[in-house]
UniProtKB/TrEMBL annotation:
SUPFAM superfamilies to which the protein is assigned, alphabetical: Amine oxidase catalytic domain, Amine oxidase N-terminal region, Copper amine oxidase, domain N
Phylogenetic placement of the source organism: Bacteria, Pseudomonadati, Pseudomonadota, Gammaproteobacteria, Oceanospirillales
PROSITE patterns assigned: COPPER_AMINE_OXID_1, COPPER_AMINE_OXID_2
Name the UniProt record assigns to this protein: Amine oxidase
Signal peptide positions (record): 1-26
Annotated organism of origin: Marinomonas polaris DSM 16579
Length: 758
């Protein structure tokens, strides 16, 4: 809804009359005008245009600015600020002088934050570049009015050239845009040269189904509301007004015809909920009723009805409206009185010894690139690119409304496009910096998601501590640990997924994934566990409310991590602690040893992770001062609040295993190939076979001293409990990458003794 709102606002701006008067800057000369969103991008400010008053309202944390179009001054927190040039409106775009953001926020933004338009070869497409891509396709010989975009994003340049540029070498980069289009059910990939404005590639892709797009959500609701057959099924359940029914469009999976569906058809399955006005329609499932809709014919293909289960009608609000006595909570003050310890320059972030590039991908969300660590003046490579690769949420119930549920959220729906704007003080702490992101909608037009990504620093306990009381020791020595957090949330239907990329000054990278939102629940006849129906109704889940079962499922996440540990040539090394017989004398009967093994090929690297062992991405070409190869430790399971998903809870002959293999192994290593992006394959919707990691490792290439990509899988098995209903407190899983002989000593010995206000 937020995305749609921004699109509507943009359309309203475009419909206004144009202000085209020539402008002269107050200090002489002609102003250099840029789009307002480009000016505000690095500051993280959001804006809204009031077309009635012809005023632009801009918000940045506790700063609010109001500027009339054409005026030479702005009101910032009630104070008048003179502008070098007025805001103007041309061809539907609000334009400001290039120094506008600096002038506006100079007094309020700490100087450690750089508001600039610094360029990086991996910068995402700008609003103008997305518009140019859309217009180039529309002007081409290929264009038809029914074409719908599922993705427009940068065609990324060659990895070696980007690394070279990051280390100061001059490189020329051509800006290209890749796009994916749906022509009915036909998927088409293409490329635009943004300099020549020419479509250089138009490639229909055979035998695949594209992503589910926002237009499909709208179509599904309309199809259901217009069906007499569906209305009749609702009447059997005492529902007479189809407008009170919320249809949720779900991918149908692949069962080789065993589900009675044709592989070639572009289909969705609709399970529905009754909106009774309590703000939580998810608590009122219309159980046992599934509509299969054909998106091409805009009709219901068939209705599956396993019998009437009464809709749970008890109001179940989760916004606190039924709790009049609110908890008494005193505020916690978080302040940075001297400014932040990080700097933002364009899309590049600098904190402590870390530097990295950040952007939002429409499919997988945040992408952190060209990540380096400054080790006492030496800039060292850590990771070329890291992001979510893909995720799956498979359910274990075989009933007609559940057996097909195995959501490939990023591959089927595009999680970046479902970004949930963040709110200060609840989603993130008040000191967070909120950054917008610009993506393309289904028509190919750009829209901006405000507050899409947050960056903030937090206290995280002692970095280290020792209190020496003997000899001439230094007494108590402790240092505060700081963490830099990059946070993003994506909402896919009932679930909200929070992804934190956490950097530590000691070189550690943490990956924390939280799940919140509303559980997908099943309506049942059982009210309490003492009912005769309880055993059958709770076979595949937990009774978490009267007539409501939380069905057992899994949340499994795979991260694509192009680690380049001090260089591109890396190997996977196993360290396996073991007990051996003592042969060295003395009273000990046994000894502890660590057996080391270098993994030879891709198929050997595909393995389940045992937390009692150590796995390293190691660079045998570089050593620390003791002669140990520099490495990073791989930890797919670093604690969590639900049982870990050691693998998929399915038998090996299950259909989902024919389509998705990444969920069953925690470590995969493949040779770097830029086209191998997604562990489930590029087009997983209704795929009958795995086109991802299973295919990537079929050639079983050597991974010894190669440019490799690490794929780690983590996740949880979600067994529901009453405390998670009607809304689930955020439940986390964790993974980690930790330096292992990468440094010569403790890398944080230079931390000052006091960094916290007392």
């Amino acid at each position: 809804m937020n995305n749609k709102k921004n699109t509507i606002v943009a359309a309203a701006v475009a419909a206004l009359s144009l202000i085209t008067s020539n402008t002269v800057m107050a200090h002489g000369g002609s102003p250099n005008y840029i789009k307002i969103e480009d000016s505000l991008k690095s500051s993280g400010a959001s804006f809204f245009y009031d077309k009635t008053a012809k005023e632009v309202h801009i918000a940045l944390e506790k700063v609010h600015a109001c500027i009339k179009v054409g005026a030479m001054e702005a009101e910032v927190n009630g104070k008048k600020i003179h502008l070098d040039a007025p805001i103007k409106l041309e061809h539907g775009n609000l334009l400001v002088e290039s120094g506008f953001a600096n002038d506006l926020f100079e007094e309020y933004v700490p100087q450690t934050i750089s508001i600039s338009d610094a360029k990086h070869p991996l910068d995402p497409l700008s609003q103008a570049e997305i518009t140019l891509t859309q217009q180039t396709v529309q002007a081409s010989k290929y264009f038809r009015s029914n074409l719908r975009f599922t993705e427009i994003k940068l065609a990324e340049p060659e990895k070696s050239k980007v690394w070279a540029w990051s280390f100061g070498q001059k490189e020329d980069f051509q800006r290209l845009a890749n796009f994916t289009i749906l022509d009915g059910k036909q998927v088409i990939e293409g490329t635009i040269n943004l300099e020549t404005k020419i479509v250089t590639r138009w490639q229909p892709i055979k035998d695949v189904h594209g992503m589910v797009i926002l237009d499909d959500f709208v179509a599904a609701q309309e199809i259901v509301e217009g069906s007499k057959e569906y209305a009749d099924a609702l009447k059997k359940r005492g529902i007479s007004n189809v407008k009170e029914v919320v249809a949720t469009p779900l991918t149908v999976g692949f069962f080789d015809g065993e589900d009675g569906l044709k592989e070639d058809d572009r289909l969705l399955k609709i399970v529905s909920y009754l909106d009774i006005g309590d703000g939580n329609f998810w608590a009122h499932p219309i159980e046992g009723l599934v509509a299969v809709v054909n998106l091409e014919t805009k009709s219901i293909e068939k209705i599956e009805d396993s019998g009437v289960i009464p809709v749970p009608m008890k109001p179940n609000p989760y916004d606190g409206r039924d709790h009049k006595n609110k908890a008494s909570v005193k505020p916690i003050a978080i302040s940075e009185p001297k400014g932040t310890n990080y700097k933002i320059s364009g899309n590049t972030i600098h904190w402590q010894n870390w530097d990295f590039h950040l952007k939002l991908d429409p499919r997988v969300g945040p992408v952190l690139s060209t990540m380096t660590y400054n080790d006492q003046g030496t800039k060292r490579k850590i990771m070329y690119e890291g992001s979510l690769g893909g995720m799956i949420v498979p359910y274990g119930d075989p009933d007609i409304g559940w057996y097909f549920k195995a959501y490939l959220d990023s591959g089927d729906y595009g999680m970046g496009g479902l970004t949930s704007p963040l709110e200060l003080g609840t989603d993130v702490p008040p000191n967070a910096k909120l950054l917008p992101a610009t993506l393309a909608d289904n028509s190919g037009a750009p829209y901006t998601i405000p507050n899409a990504i947050a960056i903030f620093e937090r206290y995280a306990g002692p970095e280290y501590k020792h209190n020496e009381m003997l000899g001439s020791g230094a007494g108590n020595q402790s240092r505060a640990r700081r963490e830099l957090v990059v946070r993003w949330v994506s909402t896919i239907g009932n679930y909200d997924y929070m992804f934190d990329w956490v950097l530590l000054a000691n070189g550690t990278i943490k990956l924390d994934v939280g799940a919140s939102g509303i559980e997908a629940v099943k309506g049942v006849k059982t009210k309490t566990m003492h009912d005769a129906t309880a055993k059958d109704d709770t076979r595949y889940g937990t009774l978490i409310d009267h007539n409501i079962v939380g069905t057992t499922h899994q949340h499994i996440y795979n991260f694509r991590l192009d680690l380049d540990v001090d260089g591109e040539k890396n190997s996977l090394v196993e360290l396996n602690p073991a007990v051996e017989k003592n042969t060295s004398g003395g009273p000990r009967k046994s000894v502890m040893v660590v057996n080391q093994h270098t993994v030879k090929d891709e198929q050997e690297a595909s393995q389940k992770f045992d937390p009692s062992t150590i796995r390293l991405m190691s660079n045998a070409n570089k050593e620390n001062r003791m002669g140990n190869p520099v490495s990073y430790q791989i930890i797919p399971f670093a604690g969590g609040t639900h049982p870990i998903a050691k693998g998929a809870l399915f038998s090996k002959d299950e259909w989902i295993f024919k389509r998705v293999n990444f969920m069953d192994k925690q470590i995969w290593v493949t040779n770097y190939k830029p086209e191998e992006r997604f562990p489930e394959g590029t087009y997983p919707n209704r795929a009958k076979t795995d086109t991802g990691l299973k295919v990537f490792i079929e050639d079983n290439e050597s991974i010894e001293n190669k440019d490799n990509v690490l794929w780690i899988t983590t996740g949880a098995t979600h067994i529901a409990r009453a405390e998670e209903w009607p809304i689930m407190p955020t439940e986390y899983v964790h993974a980690m990458l930790k330096p292992w002989n990468f440094f010569d000593q403790t890398p944080t010995l230079n931390l000052p003794a006091e960094t916290m206000e007392k």
